[in-house]
Design a protein that fits this description.
alpha/beta; single chain; 332 residues; 37% helix; disordered C terminus; TIM Barrel; eight-stranded mixed β-sheet; 8 strands
Amino acid sequence: MVVRYIFILARRNELKYTKDVALSLLKSEGKALEKLYREADAIRHRKMGDEIYIRGIVEFSNVCANNCLYCGIRASNKNFKRYSMSADEILEAAFSMEQSSLSTIVLQSGEAPGIRDEEIGTIIGRIKKETNLAVTVSVGNRPQETYYYWRECGMDRYFLRFETSNPELFGRLHPGCTLEERLACLGYLRDLGIQTGSGFMIGLPGETIDILAGNILLCREFDLDMIGIGPYIPHPDTPLGNTINAYSDNPEVFFKALAVLRLFNPEAHIQQPQLSMRSFLVKDEPLPSREGRISLCRTVHPCNTEKTTFSTRESQAWMMTPISAWTAPPYE
């Protein structure tokens, strides 16, 4: 389909959002690509405005039972120190966030089903009782009854990335888990009325543009409240440590994907990737340390047509920045 007709149909609310449409947009070049960026930015401005929302992430544990081939905290990696924060430490972080005028806390960890599920519910309840923060949880696959329990404790949102829409690629990268199981969890969350976020990595080894188009379409099909994407970056202590990003020779794909994602999901809150474009392009870029445990994550509303998404100003690795260092959003 010719790109200009896609935009005309979209403005008339007559566009059928299919994988072929996403694929056509991802293949845009020249003036068509400029038009794609302008249209995406216009939708972002019209639907979301120019506000930047800040949320506080507490990575309360890096213990994980999974062995995902790309992940540095995979269970079989013995080259770093594991930790788990206590409930009191997590609450202390929550108090600091509220004092810093943040409105949302994200409780995030590796996936270790059953180990702390009841305690997580208790922590959610304490945060809701003792602060005015909204609570987002991101700890992986769980049974529907666990999600229900956390909702009853006060959980507002849940974030669970599907990573790729291709079942074969998903299975190859996630031993012991299937895409069907991951999508079932997203379905449980939607059925329970929980605000749900998901997303994918761009450039996983084995990914094609066709798969990327499917990723974008799947986000739309789930009608997600939040979408998080980011580039695949090889971690040296994983089986894929020597495998570069599938689009390392064509970084424009990342910006195209961000723009098409906005067109397909005009109402969703789309998280800005934290890592720099240089990390996307350079194989040997050092990864941010996760020992800081507490980080600030800004959620903005792409697409940013000038690509300042990856400017120095916007892409500092804040994984090590204490919450107390910020008294206001990090912009003039």
